[in-house]
Amino acid sequence: MWYINPDSGGQAAVAKNCSTGDYAITTQVLPQDASQQRIQLARRLAAHDSGIDLMSIDPPYTAEFANAGFLAPIPQDLQDAIKNGGGDSDGPPQAFGGAVDAATWDGKLVAFPFWSNTQVLWYRKSFVQKAGLDMSKPVTWDQIIDAAAKNGGRIGVQANKYEGYVVWINALISGAGGSIIEDAEKGVDAKITISSDAGTAAAGIIRKLAHSPAAPPDLSVSNEGTAGSTFGSPAGSFLVNWTYIFHNYDQTEPDVAKDIGYTMYPQTVQGKDARPPYGGIGIGVSKYSGHVDEAMKAAACITNADNQGVNAEMTGNMPSSAAGYAYPALAKIYPADLLKLFQDSVEAAAPRSVTPYWSDISSAIQSTWHPPISVDASTPKDSASFIDDVLHGKRLL
User: Per residue in 265-315, pLDDT tens?
Assistant: First the structure.
């Protein structure tokens, strides 16, 4: 049994591809929300539930599951193939460096990278023409907020009190050269670094958008879906969102689909390279499965280059390897420059900190940075104190 995150059928198709005469891979869909996915899996794994063989794991929770001993060790030959070789249909592919990092804990690869998502800056070509912006050059958050505010546009972001908001905060801080924590391997004693010049820069951008006419009315409850709706509306201007957006409007709003442009994620600080969000899914094998050896073979098949391509073709969730991007159907679905942008963005992306305590850190950030309109120069310092207290059991979430 493979517990999968919700999608439009890609994982079910891959499961069928990888079923053999010795075993059939069946799928069970997890909740829509990533935090609820984590809770369901963690509870069952903590109970040593043998009904889970394979699981799709959101990168922020990989270290937590590995540190708790929930994941079966990946044989060294498979680890070596994922990191250094492969890329054909007979074995696991070489994965992007960021995908390997997100699937690594305590120096060992603990999950099979399956797909690697990234956000880019989507824009309405008609709007930027009206605003007079040159999108062939890097743009900053300040520039797009100012352009939208002056020209009646609204910017789509993810700022509800959920993981997607922390994804935005992390990208802003990373784009200013900072990080939320350092020395993650120290666990609860990791260095909290959100209160920094980079944290202040991130808070300034969020505050500027929240108090700007460019903010959508639903900013404080916005997620990937509502941000997409904002972008597709008459006031649509800019949107930061995942790769699937390119074909999101093909059937429902063809005029919007024709008006979509794309470029690298906005810079936090002018002249400093952007660090787009990194997302994706890794495939973990449960330590408590009654079929660990078979599950390892299945995971290797699920994550080979061809099946990464099959999943990307059906879902818009892009491969975790360059070999996966070579899947022929993708070149028919996406322009060559967009496929290159996706890969460049994954390589430039800033994963969330790999720590067993990410859930607590993320929840603490959500508590102190939400709603966006409340964010000010003191927010990074307040959140640093709260994160530290939560990790050391001095305060409750």
Answer: 999 999 999 999 999 999 999 999 999 999 999 999 999 999 999 999 999
Instruction: State mean pLDDT over 373-386.
Output: 98
CATH of domain 2-117+277-348: 3.40.190.10
pTM over 0.90: yes
Distance CA 297, CA 107 (A): 22
Integer Cα distance of 378 and 111 in angstroms: 38
Tens digits of per-residue pLDDT, 106-118?
999 999 999 999 9
The whole-angstrom separation of Cα 104 and Cα 26 is 26
pLDDT, tens digit (0-9, with 9 covering 90-100), for 86-100 = 444 455 557 898 899
**pLDDT value at residue 7:** 86
* In the chain, domain spans: 2-117+277-348, 119-276+355-392
Residue range 119-276+355-392 forms a domain whose CATH class is: alpha beta
Q: Do domains 2-117+277-348 and 119-276+355-392 have the same CATH topology?
A: yes
Residue 305 near residue 326 (C-beta atoms within 8 A): yes
